[in-house]
Amino acid sequence: MSAHETEKWIEKDRRQLHPTYHPSAHANPLVIERGEGVWLYTTDGQKILDGMAGLWNVNVGYGREELAQAAFDQMKELAYTSNFAGMTNLPSSLLAAKLAGYAYPGLNTTFFASGGSEANDSAFKTARYYWKRMGKPGKTKIIARKGAYHGVTMYATFATGIEKYHTMFGPAVEGFVHIPAPNPYRYEGEIQPGETVGQAAARALETAIQAEGPDTVAAFIAEPVMGVGGVIVPPDDYFPLIRQICDKYDVLFIADEVITGFGRTGEWFALRHWGVKPDILSFAKGITSGYAQLGGIQVSDAIRESIETAPADQSWMHGFTYSGHPMACAVALKNLEIMEREDYAGRARTLGQRLLEGLKTLEEFPFVGEVRGLGLICGVEIVSDKAARSADPALAMRIFKAAEKAGLRTRPLGSTLAFAPPIAINEDEVDEIVKRLGAAMDSVV
């Protein structure tokens, strides 16, 4: 397709609003025509290595015919039916049975949504519902973390701890409290003598619960590895302490594994790295590798029982038109089959270590402050002063643009360049990420 034809497509595209839209950021968009493996191809002839797997989600890579066939076969048989109480379908039932205990023991019940934002809204509502059923209706507040990203529905927006997502959509939804994130590179809270960052960040949760009043706090939500907030990998002592604090004060622990679930970090679910189990798990993205819109929550057996034993006037009145969509669930089943067959958690461990070690060679640049990661999710922190750890988002943006010109897709998250390529990536393609990023860095020096 010619450059002139591409411009015609861009003109048509101006009739839609894109997520997180500003015209300056969408003046000359890439028009993606097709994908194959880890590569994206544009209408004007560019070949781009997708270092972000779409939006952290295309685990099995592009062009997997098995997934297209699963969608086709299911849509021929049954494209859609309501999944509200009184009706179900075969793929959603099979997927719910498959997921029972799949992530963590004791999480045996699944509710399906269409994506991560809906999943987290469902988690917040379910936490409030549970405490009402337990005779504690005052437990409504959600504690989240600064820099966290939990989605952009109304509740999820204000659970998200990034101010730019709030600014134009206020007033804020009440009942959300934010505490410092466990960022070992740049912790923003108070560290007492002898404390680790993990201990300080966990203490911040306990302090917030005490300040708000334990009888007012329903849940704490956290991404095991923070994504949009800068690819923050917590210290090893953090989540075990979080679990203890939640148990101590009767606060539900919601794990937002929308990005980290289904093999991304080298475990099927990331909290397994620390031997911790949540009360509610939210998931999306990797469950279908982005081939269909699907997300949801898994809830503990205690929460399931509170719903099952409720009187009619206390029914769990929640759901979406596309909950348990048969085609999406059929794609998820086939996707899980592929990822298990090809050992995606093992691939993410091995190839993630290769990527992390490769990116660390770039720490020789004076503006690379830190390289961090877990499995196939890595971040490269760009700074103006290594000693002071001064964030430099403007330089990160320049490197991002240079990398795009070099045929590499990353994502600038403030001062951090994020990488989460398809888990289907091979060793040569991992090395190509490092090579192209290094060339981009050379070009801005």
CATH architecture level-2 label of the largest domain? 3-Layer(aba) Sandwich
CATH superfamily of the largest domain: Type I PLP-dependent aspartate aminotransferase-like (Major domain)
- Helix amount, in percent? 25-40%
Q: What's the total count of β strands?
A: 16
Report the top-level CATH class of the largest domain.
Alpha Beta
What is the CATH fold-level name of the largest domain?
A: Aspartate Aminotransferase, domain 2
| Number of distinct helices | 13
Total domains, how many?
2
- Output mean pLDDT: 96
User: In percent terms, what proportion of residues is strand?
Assistant: 15-25%
General form: globular
The low-confidence parts are none
Looking across the biggest beta sheet, what order are the strands in? 4-10-9-8-7-5-6
Instruction: Label the structural class.
Output: alpha/beta
Order of helices and strands: HEEEHHHEHEHEHEHEEEHHHEEEHEEEH
The radius of gyration computed from the alpha-carbon positions, rounded to a whole number of angstroms, is 22 Å
Largest sheet: 7 strands, mixed
